[in-house]
Design goal:
The protein has about 190 residues and is an alpha/beta fold. The chain is built from nine helices and five strands, in the order βααβαβααβαβααα. The longest helix is centred in the C-terminal third of the chain and has 21 residues.
Length: about 190
């Protein structure tokens, strides 16, 4: 199975001394469980939903072309909240992305994470609710992870770095949350 993880710096695992982030940890666990998984990290630091909408399909297509075993996991929105982008624009981009992706490959949406700044985090939290509704309407499973980003380990580690990105403990907590999600585990039947 080849899985493209598309999104922002949290997808990329910025701040993780192990260089795995949550996506790397998820795929390492799947491999240890006997699944043949190839991970493609398509997280770009600072990317907004508009930038992801522009690039995601060609980047995923280059990796999953004609692959029946391809999958896509999206996670974005934090930078939209930081930059104060109109949520209607974010939702329009998410709608286009998820509608197209779903027609091509099995897809999942992991919600955006807080960045530790009050005005932005209020916008991100509201965006989480809107993205959950949109994802449900488009038939794409959605997982809210905002609360993981407010956990003690996540915030403590972020405070030691840039204030937004955790280290291995925060990403491990996020990976554990996603690993328990039924939509994710359905991709990995017991061998």
């Amino acid at each position: 199975m080849r899985i493209c993880f598309v999104g922002d710096s949290f997808v990329n695992g910025v701040g993780d001394d192990d260089g795995l982030g949550w996506a790397g940890r998820l795929c390492a666990t799947a491999r240890r469980s006997g699944h043949d998984v190839t991970r493609y990290d398509l997280g770009v630091r600072g990317n907004t939903s508009a930038q992801i909408a522009e690039r995601w399909e060609r980047e995923v297509e280059a990796r999953l072309r004609l692959r029946e075993d391809g999958r896509v996991v999206f996670s974005f929105g934090s930078n939209d909240g930081v930059q104060g982008i109109d949520p209607l624009h974010t939702l329009a981009h998410a709608d286009a992305i998820l509608s197209r992706a779903r027609s091509l490959w099995p897809s999942l949406m992991v919600g955006p994470l807080p960045v530790g700044a009050a005005p932005a985090d209020v916008r991100i939290d509201a965006l989480c609710r809107s993205l959950a509704t949109l994802s449900a309407d488009r038939g794409v499973p959605y997982l809210r992870v905002y609360e993981v980003g407010t956990s003690e380990v996540f915030r403590r580690e972020a405070a030691l770095d840039d204030g937004a990105h955790p280290n291995r403990g925060g990403y491990a907590a996020l990976a554990d949350t996603i690993a328990a999600w039924e939509a994710w585990t359905s991709w990995f039947p017991r061998p």
